Amino acid sequence: MFSKKLARILCVVLFALISIVLLSISAKHPHRYTIVDRVAMAGIVPFQDGVSRTMHFCARMWHHYFYLVSVREEYDRLKGMLAKAEMEKSWSLESELACRRLRKLLEMKSELPYRMVPASVVGLDPSGWFKTVFINRGTEDGISKGMAVITSDGIVGRVIGASGRYAKVLLIIDRSSAVDALVQRTRSRGIIEGETSESCRFKYVVRKADIKIEDTVISSGLDGLFPKGLRVGAISEISRPSSALFQEVKVRPFVDFTRLEEVLVVLE
């Protein structure tokens, strides 16, 4: 048995053949309008109209498809250009910020009467037990153990080991670090020791010493490691226990160790 779909196709084909035959008959007498003409018109015109609409619809869909394809390609192209522009903008901004930091280091290098080598921080201590960083300068650049490391903001730490191209720096916020220091305003002395990533202890400041919150603490130069006058930090807390010989003082370092990128190593 024929399926319904096949029957419909046969009906359409038969209808088209009948319409063609009627058109052929009417074409032999173009100036006469007979019943055959009316039947042909009633049969073929709707069919032609349907075919014409279908072709126009397909043409529009085809055109819209290629239009959407071209729009998609243009979108992908513009998206790629935008991503490239954003990357170039980020590189330009990073270069500008690096230039500012290096300019400050160079200004400081020209002001201080010491031979210094610039270096970049390239790594952190993986163990987490010590507050140390690695820099991309070593013995090939004249760096050796014990040399001071600074920035334009203040003291960073000291070199505790060096290889040919790299060196390890112990930061002043490490508990095993020590800097002989004094209060710039009153010259009261003490020892700066690491405590946390945000503060240091200023130990052995005698009880009668005149110190205040926000006083600047600098290196004394008496430890033989750090040149005199380098900034360490500002006093942030003061406590004077009644039975103690020394005050309990905390200092906020001027160097932001979470954003440390470039440093200077004092060779002398």
Describe the structure.
By secondary structure, the protein is of the alpha+beta class. The protein has helices at 4-27, 35-111; strands at 116-124, 132-135, 148-150, 155-162, 167-171, 178-183, 189-194, 200-206, 216-219, 231-239, 246-253, 262-266. The protein is built from 2 helices and 12 strands, in the order ααββββββββββββ. α1 packs across α2 (35-111). The mean pLDDT is 79. A 6-stranded antiparallel beta barrel has the order 1-2-5-4-3-12. Strands 6-7-8-11-10-9 form a 6-stranded antiparallel barrel. The chain folds into 2 domains: 4-65, no CATH class; 112-268, Rod shape-determining protein MreC, domain 1 (Thrombin, subunit H, Beta Barrel).
Provide a compact summary of the structure.
The chain is an alpha+beta fold and 268 residues long.
Indicate the topology.
Blueprint: H1 4-27, H2 35-111, E1 116-124, E2 132-135, E3 148-150, E4 155-162, E5 167-171, E6 178-183, E7 189-194, E8 200-206, E9 216-219, E10 231-239, E11 246-253, E12 262-266
Antiparallel strand pairs: 1-2, 1-12, 2-5, 3-4, 3-12, 4-5, 6-7, 6-9, 7-8, 8-11, 9-10, 10-11
Helix pairs in contact: 1-2
Which features characterize this protein?
38% helix; single chain; elongated; 268 residues; alpha+beta
